Amino acid sequence: LIAAHALMLSPAALLERLRDRRIDLLGQSGDDLPADQRTLTAALQRSYSLLTTEEQRLFRTLGVFAGSVGVDALEWFGFDLRTVQALANKSLLRLESAGSTRRAVLLETVRDYALLRLHEAGEAAAAEHGRLAWCVMLAERAEPMLHSAAQTSWLQRLESDRYNFYAALRTALDTGSVADAVRICVALRHFWVARNHVAEIAAWLGAIHRAAEQVDLEEQLWVRLLNCEGTIAFYRAEYAAASVHFAAALARAEAIGDLGRLATELLSI
To answer: Which of 71, 72, 144, 191 has its CA 20 to 30 A from that of 236?
Structure first.
């Protein structure tokens, strides 16, 4: 579809148009082609219509994940591995190895189409909520492993899902699920530092802190949030800010008599 326009537009112009109108831009008007092969939308629509009901549901759900998603996550969502393989066999997703796991990858144009179908089906909110719950589970499962002999493989695993975590944080803030956003950030504190994502997560922490001030966040989570903010500030060489956050965490921990939690948090930096 792209090559057909190469004589009329430069590669830079083609790329710009593809970015602007990703799915519907490119097509061939030749009468010698079947209707379902003249545009990308028509081709995807044809492929989608041939899927089983469960394959269609999986395809729509895949649209909510940024970049890629582990096959184990799809099992957590309740999908059978045979359904995942069926979409791979039909070239609607690609299965790639990432360490000891396999990940499902959609081309961005295909993901755009999957998102359209997800919204049309009225399933977007449920899928985003499910992604948030899964990210909380994965982050808290990973937390103790990041201080174990398995930390290298877990750091690699979490890196593959970094943009899914960011998307989950956005969902949490948009829906008022501030506690879930805090749980993700604090559980992955060592990951942000070890993989040098401190600048990225610092912006999220600022937004989460402001949101937490508007809700009734548990004091234990406040202690962990403030300590996480202090850790990130420290590794950004913002020592004055780090001191403020650590002092605030200490004060809250003292107020609820949870110095053991604070000691654990500080020792794990």
So the answer is: 144
Residue 98 pairs with which residues in a beta bridge?
A: 101
Question: Residues 236-259, buried b or exposed e (16+ Cβ, 10 A)?
Answer: eebeebbeebbebbbebbeeeebe
Interior CA angle at 239 toward 236 and 243, to 5°? 125
Q: What is the pLDDT of residue 101?
A: 83
Model confidence over 238-260: pLDDT tens digits? Answer: 999 999 999 999 899 888 887 77
- With 50 as the cut, is the pLDDT of residue 37 above it? no
pLDDT at 152: 94
Residue type, 147: H
HEC profile of the chain: CCHHHCCCCCHHHHHHHHHHCCCCCCECCCCCCCHHHCEHHHHHHHHHHCCCHHHHHHHHHHCCCCCEEEHHHHHHCCCCHHHHHHHHHCCCCEEEEECCEEEEECCHHHHHHHHHHHHHCCCHHHHHHHHHHHHHHHHHHHHHHCCCCCHHHHHHHHHHCHHHHHHHHHHHHHHCCHHHHHHHHHHCHHHHHHCCCHHHHHHHHHHHHHHHCCCCCCHHHHHHHHHHHHHHHHHCCCHHHHHHHHHHHHHHHHHCCCHHHHHHHHHCC
What is the pLDDT at residue 268?
54
- Examine the pLDDT at 156 and tell me if it is beyond 90: yes
CA distance 93 to 235: 38
Please tell me the distance from the alpha carbon of residue 104 to that of residue 88, in angstroms, as a whole number.
8
Structure tokens at 135: 């990210």
List residues bridging with 39 in a β-sheet: 27
What does the pLDDT read at residue 21? 56
